[in-house]
Design brief:
The complex is a heterodimer of chains A (107) and B (118). Chain A is an all-beta fold and 107 residues long. Chain A is 0% helix and 49% strand. In chain A, the strands form two sheets. Chain A has a six-stranded mixed β-sheet with strand order 2-10-9-4-5-6, with no helix packed on it. A four-stranded antiparallel β-sheet of chain A has the order 1-3-8-7, with no helix packed on it. Chain B has no helices and eleven strands. With 118 residues, chain B is mainly β. The termini of chain B are far apart. The chains are: A mainly beta (107), B mainly beta (118). The interface between A and B is medium-sized, with 22 and 22 residues.
Chain lengths: 107, 118
């Protein structure tokens, strides 16, 4: 099975900072990569799919890039409401493995 | 409006069984694959199982294969997860989610808590 590895597992940044989270697949998955945001006590929310397509209604400060095995989620200017855990997920085939998550906090 | 509502969670002893349901509305249920995803307390998301619209394709995570069975009733717009031989490590919030190649897991239910404990 393909493994999904996110880094870092947590980060602390200041409001306005540029934040980058990476996700690496153990084998190529083309662009079948999604990113989710989960705030404490809430249901996961789809942010980005097809590696770089922003879900409708998601702020433009979020962006995704990559293909094959290496992917990136970028928050261009971190806002207080972005405090959450972010997950990547492969969805080209089963199992639809999630990364272990990256917890983002405000410094 | 798309709505997914899970039910059936609760406290069960190790080795016991439980059947989760997910009632769907607001979309053409039979045309979408559906997923079960779980989250243990304080842990990350874990994909559990998926089923195609016609039930012709079904997949399971290795951690539940042989113990859990996913099914659906398109006439009732409902998704199910039969969980047998439950273990402590199956304790989690279980979410159903609507799948699509274009928008994976765009819609989620609110989740139902399954607690396996003696």
């Amino acid at each position: 099975d393909i493994q999904m590895t996110q880094s870092p597992s947590s980060l602390s940044a200041s409001v306005g900072d540029r934040v980058t989270i990476t996700c690496r697949a153990s084998q190529g998955i083309s662009i079948y990569l999604a990113w989710y945001q989960q705030k404490p006590g809430k249901v996961p929310k789809l942010l980005i799919y097809a590696a770089s397509t922003l879900q409708s209604g998601v702020p433009s400060r979020f962006s995704g890039s990559g293909s094959g095995t290496d992917f990136t989620l970028t928050i261009s200017s971190l806002q207080p409401e972005d405090v959450a855990t972010y997950y990547c997920q492969k969805y080209n085939s089963a199992p639809q493995t999630f990364g272990q998550g990256t917890k983002v906090e405000i410094k | 409006e798309v709505q997914l509502v899970e039910s059936g969670g609760g406290l069960v002893q190790p080795g016991g069984s439980l059947r989760l349901s997910c009632a769907a509305s607001g979309f053409s249920f039979s045309t979408y694959s559906m997923n079960w995803v779980r989250q243990a307390p304080g842990k990350g998301l874990e994909w559990v199982s998926d089923i195609s619209g016609s039930s012709s394709t079904i997949d399971y995570a290795d951690s539940v294969k042989g113990r859990f069975t996913i099914s659906r009733d398109n006439a009732k717009n409902s998704l199910y997860l039969q969980m047998n031989s439950l273990r402590d490590e199956d304790t989690a919030v279980y979410y159903c989610a609507r799948d699509s190649p274009l928008q994976p897991n765009r819609y989620w239910g609110q989740g139902t808590l399954v607690t396996v404990s003696s």
